[in-house]
Amino acid sequence: MNLIIFSNILLWVVVLVQIAVIFALARQIGILFERVSPVGAMISDSGPALGDKVPPMTLPNLNGDTLPLGGGPGRAQLIFFLSTSCPICKALLPALKSIQGDERAWLDVVLASDGREALHRRLIETENLQDFPYVLSSELGMSFRVSKLPFAVLLDRDGKVAAKGLVNSREQLESLFTASETGIPSYQAAVAGMTS
Prior knowledge:
alpha/beta
């Protein structure tokens, strides 16, 4: 009988120690999460450099009239390169819809891709993207040398590259606007103490 009581007490001590260890690890993970800085869009050195004026292009738009690259006078453009098979691209669509609504006064959000038109028309229908200019042009992707998706380019009101980079989250997408406003091209440049 004493052996059973001793083994139960020992078992409870082990369980309590495990609970304490799990609590301590969870706390450390929380502290680590708070200390890790947010990472902005991963800037790419390929394609037009920051500050370069993009070459003039008139692009086919699946949702309306052709689209001039560089926007109209006083209009900036956020070009978001996506794929119909990219889950991260689809996850960022609500953020793009929010940006389009909030920044409508000065910014046009343009979706861009290449590939089969039927797949893109299906994406437009299923994700309700009829309000976006939707460019289907391999020439556009090649001119910006887009190699990974999702990728975004922010063009200022003069058609110059204000910010660009690989964006995997809403925070990285919004970091393009921060980069444009501060003149610091990327989070990585800010950490290194660089400015443009």
